[in-house]
Amino acid sequence: MENPLVLASGNTGKLSEFRQLLEPLGYQLDPQSEYDVSEADETGLTFLENALIKARHACRISGRPALADDSGLAVDALGGAPGIHSARYAGEPRSDEANNRKLLEALVDVPEGRRTASYWCVLVWLRHAEDPVPGIVQASWPGEILAHPRGEGGFGYDPLFWVPERGMSAAELSAGEKNQLSHRGRALRALLEQLS
Fold this sequence. Notes:
Radius of gyration: 17 Å
Oligomer: single chain
Strand order of the largest sheet: 2-1-3-4-5-6-7
Helix content: 25-40%
């Protein structure tokens, strides 16, 4: 029997990435929508607070262990923005294209070499809604913001996120390469190590 786990997210990109990493380890990852879990109100001021809120909400409603991720892009020249507002940076409805456009506008006067940024991911794993000792890890993925989008893969800010060690954008990486390098892949491997 696989270990059932609820992903406290409706993001299909995240679900796909997490499934690729978790299913070979015997975890059956279901989106929260399969348990009629609504989106939690993310009232935290940090990635960690929001991940805890989402995991607790999913556990409480589904009655199952939950994995929540809160992640986003922190651009140094923008004081860490868009940060916890990464998914809704350009407002509602959420749109990767609109978010990317707003980011490029915000950086229009920032020269190449001063456009450093990091993707951040905080993962929280709760066994039940009142779990007093959640599994918590955070990981980052440093890079730079390009002046123009490149590549068709990934999601979010990936077409603008330059990965210096590969000489390409995150959207130009294969899914396997991205899982190896990304903030989410690094955080998940650290969490599995912590829990094993």
